[in-house]
Amino acid sequence: MIIQSAWRGQTLTLSFKPNCLTVSLQTGTESTVFSWDNLGRLWTAMLAGKSYRRGLNGRVVAKWQLADGGRERRWLEESEARSLQETARACAAGLVDDIASAVLVTAPALSPADLLVLVNAASFDTQRYTADVSAYQRVYKPVGILPPDQYMAVVLQAAEGCSFNTCTFCSFYKDRPFRIKSPQEFQQHAVQVKEYLAAGLSLRRTVFLGDANALVIPMPRLLPLFEITRRVFDVDRLGGIYAFLDGFSAEKKSAKDFARLAGLGLRRVYIGLESGHTPLLRLLKKPGQAEDAVQAVRAMKEGGVSAGIIVLLGAGGKQYADAHVIDTLSALNRMGLDADDLIYFSELVESEDMQYTRDAYAQNLQPLTPAERIQQGEQIESALEFDEERGVPHISRYDIREFVY
Questions:
Q1: Which residues, 6 or more positions from 220, have their beta carbon under 8 angstroms from its beta carbon?
Q2: CA dihedral sign, ordered 384, 387, 392, 393
Q3: CB-based contacts of 237, cutoff 8 Å, min separation 6
Q4: CB 209 within 8 A of CB 229
Q5: What CA–CA distance (Å, rounded) separates 89 from 128?
Q6: What is the Cα–Cα distance from 284 to 359, expressed in whole angstroms?
Q7: Contact (CB, 8 A) for 280 and 318
Q8: Coil/strand/helix, residue 312
Q9: What is the CATH code for 140-402?
Q10: Rg of the Cα trace of the chain?
């Protein structure tokens, strides 16, 4: 339901959807927008031309467009995040007060269910946010990274950490050994996640089985975890199960294995190919070779599961650039990708404490500029070949600096 009215000298739009509430205020050309889940947690906002996204972990990222068309981002300090949350809460509280006192009369009138969502947003003060983040931290280990299309998933940590954890460009799981949860432990975790999300579960679109590469779990141990997921959550209604897979090493799953997992709700598997050039994979400390990833994707496609392939732009710098493009293109073209699949181009993000940065310095690798990294992605994309009848995968950028859960 969408309600439009005037409120306190502004144009007001209330959008009540089954999964969330959005309040939009317009004054001249200035827009202010807040969105909450049904429990009252703020999750997105827009103020003074900047957009904000809040994660369940309490962190808030701000993003805005630059004059040259580029995009900037910044993580808010804790005090700034509290201020944003209080601004949103005060807006919701003002609406509740004015509706209760008939200063604001909406047409049609709010239903009891819609009014409850607004009241929830108005009552989510700093104390409640603090308690909510503490509850999150009791339920989850840090969620390292997700594919962009899974930022609104229900994350279930069937395993913790990464099974090989050697990639020089990744530091998400360096402090955690790989561990697979027992069925009993996973059952408890899944129930706790459901209780924590509560009414906010309506905002979640899929189930993501974590952590870094949960699908390396051997089938005899993996199948019970899928069955538990289906018992605790309505997987089909949420849109299926998604997960990362190390496509280079560990237990190789067959097309038959993937078909069985597809029958339990598996819809897409994401593989960090990074590059199709084997010497570059060696530099990145990726196990195996590109052909392993190609065969893994072909097996999952044969089993009825779609693929999400991640390519690392800028890896290896100028010395590896040509071979990176040629061999990555070859690997992608041999995977049999179609309209059900995704290709993500993710720019290499370096830091001083990263092993890749130290290795690149030691080998005197010349980094690509941001423009050259984008051009590298365009080179690969322009030469991809697909079957016209099966369609073209969705291709987009993947900026890990904007990840929030």
A1: none
A2: negative
A3: none
A4: yes
A5: 11
A6: 9
A7: no
A8: strand
A9: 3.20.20.70
A10: 23
Q: Measured on CA atoms in the order 176, 179, 185, 191, is the torsion positive or negative?
A: positive
Residue with tokens 């995704």: 342
Q: For residue range 57-108, list pLDDT tens digits in order.
A: 999 999 998 877 778 899 999 999 999 999 999 999 999 999 999 898 888 8
Structure tokens given for 216: 């390396």
Which residue's structure tokens are 């944003």? 84
Token representation of residue 225? 């975890």
148 preceded by a cis bond (ω within 30 of 0): no
DSSP 86-100: HHHHHHHHHHHHHHH
Q: Write out the H or E segment, with its range, that includes residue 202.
A: none
Q: Say how many C-beta atoms besides its own lie within 10 A of residue 382's C-beta.
A: 8
- Tokens of residue 252, six digits: 């190789």
pTM over 0.90: yes
d(CA 187, CA 231) in angstroms, rounded, equals 9
pLDDT of 251 reads 65
**What pLDDT score was predicted for residue 317?**
96
Query: Which pair of tokens denotes residue 22?
Result: 């959005």
- Rounded Cα gap, residues 310 and 298, in angstroms: 16
The pair of three-digit structure tokens given for residue 297, joined into one six-digit string: 């994707």
Domain ranges of the chain: 2-132, 140-402
Distance CA 357, CA 317 (A): 11
In contact, 208 and 308? CB cutoff 8 Å: no
